Input
Amino acid sequence: MNNSIIKWIFVPITIILIIITLIGVSMLSAQNNQLEKNEAQINSLEEQLASAIQQIGSLQSDIAELDSLKSSIDALEEAIQNP
Output
């Protein structure tokens, strides 16, 4: 009789615990997949940021060259107007 009672108590509890464990594993797997996607997006954004920083540096260099060119043009115009 005691064995029967133990089976009726522990078998359902064991089944419930197994189901809860499987649900937990499934949820963790889904979260892991989401984290991997987010990590890929972060890596992509970091690459885009690095590229943007390079472009900004290039643009700053171009602006400096244009400023130098403008100064040269201004000097030439001054020389032409005041021979």
User: Anything to note?
Assistant: The radius of gyration is 35 Å. The chain has a mean pLDDT of 93.
